[in-house]
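Appendix C reproduces, verbatim, an entry submitted by the partner laboratory led by Prof. M.T., so that reviewers can inspect both the input and the predicted structure.
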Amino acid sequence: MAYLDEIGKRIKDRREELFYTQEELAKRLGYNSKASISRIESGKQNLTQTKISAIAEILKTSPAYLMGWVDEEGNYIDDTAGEAVSYTHLRAHETRHD
């Protein structure tokens, strides 16, 4: 599944930015070995919301970033255009209907 690949890539990228090994992340998450982290990063393991939240906390990021809903700056990603769109930008272009 493509979304699991994207989540795994974001987890791996963030883990490497923080200079954590797969072993360190596995230990912090309560896994017995790095094999679980390898499966997550390769998109071969489903994750619960609770596990995504735990990973995000350890990696000092948000679940929304790991899910691919926002970019590194917190801008929402417009899936139809493949571009990040900030919430402020969206609000500025809303029209008011009275």
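Residues 49 and 63 are 8 Å apart (CA to CA). Additional entries are available on request from the coordinating office.
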